[in-house]
Amino acid sequence: MAKVEDALANFGLTQNETKVYIALLELGSTTTGALISRTGLHVPRVYDALRGLIHKGLASFVIKNKRKHFEAAGPEHFLELLSDKEREINDALPELKKLERMAGPQLEAATIYKGKKGLRTVLESILSELEGGREYLDFGVSGIFRQVMPLYWDRWQEMKKKKKVRSRVIFDEKLRGSQLVKDYVGQHRFVPSKYFCPSDTMVYEDKIAVFIWTADPPTVVLIRDEKTAMGYKNIFEWMWSKAGR
To answer: Does 177 lie in the same domain as 234?
Structure first.
């Protein structure tokens, strides 16, 4: 259930909305009294959550015997909402890119992003920048990414395939034969576990993204410098030539 709650939270539901939505799925068409009993929430919080769910298109109600009965929209409705959001963003992208160009070049050599949402911002920008066949290099891979963001890791692999982003990754030897390696999209090799590193270092274009998964909250440092990126690429190529298949 924790994975379900994390997924709904990442979608934008509040904690109370998540509790009420799950209760609606379990109870079917029901009244607020049953929801209060099921969730343990106070009356105002249940009503606030229902209003939020209705506003998001995830719940509805009908009148039966002069009482409101609430129902959850089917879980597949989340995919429809995602498609709608994707269309809206795609429509807005030309104007957003125009505003970005007006701001001129960004001079910061390094930017720090914190928390899962910050990490997702960087991860999705990587795929957007490399879409259509360009490549990123990744070393120091211990599998912690999937532990910290399990649902998103799976989705990121799917997006990588969809956007035709190529990659080469150097895994910790202990992951050989693991489900993570089997599910990974891209080329891979292995280095001995004595060289273990709990962070991912992704190198692409003129950037280096260092993901510090063990930080609280998890953090990524994004470095923009062409010469530094080239140096990291050279290090990766040396490691790749020495790594086991």
So the answer is: yes
CB atoms near residue 114 (< 10 Å): 14
Pair 168, 191: CB distance under 8 Å? no
What is the span of the domain harbouring residue 11?
Answer: 2-72
Distance between CA 121 and CA 96 in Å, rounded? Answer: 16
Residues 66 and 135 in one domain: no
Question: What's the CATH code of the domain at 110?
Answer: 3.30.870.10
Taking the C-alpha atoms of residue 149 and residue 160, their distance in angstroms, rounded to an integer, is: 16
209 with 127, same domain: the answer is: yes
* Lowest pLDDT segment from 61-75, 98-112, 155-169: 98-112
Q: What is the pLDDT of residues 97-128, one digit of tens each?
A: 888 777 665 556 889 999 988 999 999 999 99
Give tens-digit pLDDT for 4-22.
888 888 888 999 999 999 9
Please tell me whether the peptide bond between 217 and the residue prior to it is cis, using omega within 30 degrees of 0: yes
- Residue 105 Cα to chain centre, angstroms: 27
In a domain, 197, yes or no: yes
- The separation between CA 41 and the C-alpha centre of its own chain, rounded to angstroms, equals 29
> How many domains does the chain fold into?
2
Q: What pLDDT is attached to residue 105? A: 57
Read off the tokens for 190.
């292995």
